[in-house]
Amino acid sequence: MRLRTLAEVVDHLGASGKTGIIDGTEFRVRRPTAGGRDRDKFISGKSKQNAVKTMLVTDGDGQVLFCSPAQHGSCADIAHARQLGLVRLPQGGPAVEILPDAGCQGLGAQTVERVVTPSHRTFKKNTPDRYEEMHEWQREGHSSRRIRVEHGIAYPKNWRAPARHLGRRDHISDTVQAAAALLSHQQTADLPPARTM
Question: Where would you tag: which of 16, 69, 125, 189 has the fewest CB atoms within 10 A of its CB?
Answer without folding.
Answer: 125
